[in-house]
Prior knowledge:
The protein is of the alpha+beta class. The protein is 33% helix and 13% strand. It has 7 helices and 3 strands, in the order E-E-H-H-E-H-H-H-H-H.
Amino acid sequence: MIQEPFIATYVITNRPHGTLYIGVTNHLVRRIGEHREGRTPGFARRYGLKRLVWFQAFELMTNAIHREKLMKEWPRQWKINLIERENPNWDDLWTGLADPAPLVKGGALESLFKREGLELEARSSAVIPGLVLGTAVSAGDDPAGEALPVTLPSESQSRR
């Protein structure tokens, strides 16, 4: 199992096209383990959300939080597009995080590694810390790769 923490924004679900939860953490492996074991009360436990289907690593927590907030404002279909572009079978990416040895060409994590500009190799946990290359995104970023106009709520509306 990967022990080194890294900051990430992530999406978990209960099944393909099921209920989606977007979260942010400073230690993805630990946090997904908590979701899988149902240790944290709340939305994810209530709906049985344990399948990690997407994540993006960041160097700064502020960038990860920004990404999370933007994604929570997106229409549901944008979120689905993002997941399906990089994980079309909605595979549980936890397997690759819990045991990096199965990371092989054609696996569910391959597109995530390509996005981060990394070579995908079957090797030790040293692969994962290299994912900490995430960048800030703009409000108009569309998962399909096109910049779309987005009207964001005012500052006061965002502080719910």
